[in-house]
Amino acid sequence: MFEVLLILGIIFLVWVFPIYSIYKSDRCQRREKAAWIIACLFISWFAWVFYLLLAPLKKD
User: Fold this and answer.
1) What's the CA gap between 37 and 21, in Å, rounded?
2) Long-range interactions of 14-18: CB distance < 8 A, separation 24+
3) Quick one: pLDDT at residue 57?
4) What per-residue confidence (pLDDT) applies to 24?
């Protein structure tokens, strides 16, 4: 039983990692972050990879 919970916990963390990564990032504005997070919810890791490649860098 413990092994099943451990595996489910690891799967959950792997699924949540891109969402948390985008949430904490300073690469884009709040509305754009929301769009990327929604994309991650539906497309998961592909959206996160696209975020890393396409999200604008913060201009100082």
Assistant:
1) 10
2) 15/44, 18/44, 18/45, 18/47, 18/48, 18/51
3) 64
4) 93
Q: Residue 16 is which amino acid?
A: V
Tokens of 49: 């990879």
Confirm if 34 and 25 have CB atoms less than 8 A apart: no
Six-digit token pair at 15? 């699924």
Domain ranges of the chain: 2-54
For 10, the token pair is 């690891």
- List, for residues 19-50, the tens digit of each pLDDT value: 999 999 888 889 999 999 999 988 878 888 88
Whose structure tokens read 């904490």? 24
